[in-house]
Design goal:
Blueprint (H helix, E strand, L loop, with lengths): L4 E5 L3 H12 L3 E5 L11 E4 L1 H9 L3 H7 L5 E6 L4 E6 L1 H7 L4 E4 H11 L4 E2 L4 E7 L2 E6 L4 E4 L1 E4 L8 H5 L6 E13 L9 E7 L2 E8 L3 E8 L9 H11 L5 H9 L6 E7 L7 E2 L2 E3 L2 H4 L8 H18 L4 H30 L4 H13 L2 H13 L5
Parallel strand pairs: 1-2, 1-11, 2-7, 4-13, 11-18
Antiparallel strand pairs: 3-6, 4-5, 8-9, 9-10, 12-15, 12-16, 13-14, 14-15, 17-18
């Protein structure tokens, strides 16, 4: 289709990447977000090779390499520091053809905003849309209206559009754990250089992975009832209690983190759902498949969505709705499987069935490293850019 006007709702990873891809295709693109200031949710993201390949394909390979961390190995340790498994990631990188790049979310969003050749319209909350035979109009709370050939709803796990696409509400589900995350200066006392260090025990997890600018992205997971009543001034005491007796690097991490810059998130996922598209409107990213972060694939799946959607719009010429249905068919199979697998992984790690988690701890001790990298490679190579 030669010339299209695309309206994108949501200026997160998926919306911005879709905007970049569609502008490169020569389409007119408008991006809107309800927030007045772009502030990414969460401090970091483990961008695995399938997501990085999309950015490479869009000409952003040097930019992502500059802000990403060099991650060459993974180590699993018990809560007291016993080494359970050490995994060299170089065979994985050789197999899939691209290294992963853990990255600070703010750095990634800043990179994508800079790469989008147009304005991102902030403080525009989309409240409705009207579809007609030849196009669609987005309607905003502030009275603004804009019309185009299609709308991409990249408005997150609490999407305003999903109910209209599905004709029923589908709400996010609590995954069973609270996640504290942020950034700290890299230090060998916390974790070896270029290594993703993970401590596990008591159905909890403490993790550090390298990101750009000599920093580490950390997260600490604890299975708890969902609540949002804690405030930053209580985070350190809360974490000290939850991780009492854990190894010294975990204690140092809790001492060094900045509570004011630490996110405390009740982890939810959403789906799998059986429809991503209705007419000229398509869900993208977390709006279609909100994913537990336990596979590190949430952002990657949004990047894959953006790539696949832009390709169908470019490569097929029956109609916009036809291209969107083809996008839906391909992405539903791929992303829904990732949602289910990530939920299963979250339950395994966080003690939904304590026997299953205990068996996983035992498995970590005995599992050949190549089994771990093969499982990661299988997920990566399921994407559109193999």
């Amino acid at each position: 289709m030669n010339h299209l006007k695309v309206i994108i709702i949501g200026a997160g990873i998926g919306g911005l990447t879709a905007g970049i891809a569609l502008k490169q295709a020569g389409y007119e693109v408008e991006i809107y977000d309800r927030v007045a200031t772009l502030r990414p949710v969460g401090a970091g993201i483990s961008l695995w090779s399938n997501g990085v390949k999309v950015l490479n394909r869009l000409g952003l390979g040097a930019e992502i390499a500059a802000i990403g961390g060099e991650m060459n190995a993974m180590t699993y340790r018990s809560k007291t520091g016993e080494l359970l498994n050490q995994i060299d990631l170089m065979p994985l990188i050789d197999r899939v053809g691209q290294r992963p790049y853990p990255v600070a979310r703010r750095d990634l969003q800043t990179m994508l905003v800079a790469a989008f050749p147009g304005e991102v319209h902030l403080d525009h909350k989309c409240i409705d849309f009207e579809e007609y035979e030849t196009g669609v109009t987005a309607i905003f709370e502030n009275g603004h209206r804009t019309s185009g050939d299609l709308i991409i709803a990249a408005d997150g796990i609490r999407s305003q559009f999903r109910k209209q696409i599905l004709d029923e509400p589908v709400e996010p589900k609590y995954a069973g754990y609270i996640n504290w995350n942020g950034l700290v200066p890299a230090d060998e006392q916390l974790a070896p250089k270029n290594t993703w260090s993970i401590y596990v025990g008591e159905h909890k997890r403490a993790s550090l992975m390298p990101v750009g600018d000599s920093r580490c992205y950390f997260f600490l997971d604890v299975p708890l009832p969902p609540d949002n009543c804690a405030t930053p001034d209580s985070y350190r005491a809360e974490l000290k209690e939850h991780f009492r007796g854990w190894d010294e690097p975990v204690q140092q991490l809790i001492d060094r983190l900045n509570p004011a810059e630490t996110a405390r998130i009740a982890i939810h996922d959403m789906g799998p759902i059986d429809r991503y598209v209705k007419g000229r409107v398509a869900l993208l990213g977390d709006a279609a498949h909100g994913t537990c972060p336990d596979l590190g694939q949430g952002g990657c799946q949004a990047l894959e969505d953006a790539w696949v959607l832009s390709n169908y719009l470019i490569a097929t010429n029956i109609s916009v709705p036809d291209a969107l249905k083809r996008y839906e068919s391909e992405r539903k199979e791929r992303a829904n499987a990732v949602v289910a697998k990530a939920r299963q992984r979250a339950e395994q790690i966080h003690g939904r069935d304590p026997d299953v988690t205990q068996a996983w701890y035992q498995q970590l001790k005995n599992e050949p490293p190549e089994d771990v990298t093969s499982a990661i490679a299988k997920t990566i190579l399921g994407g559109p850019l193999r």
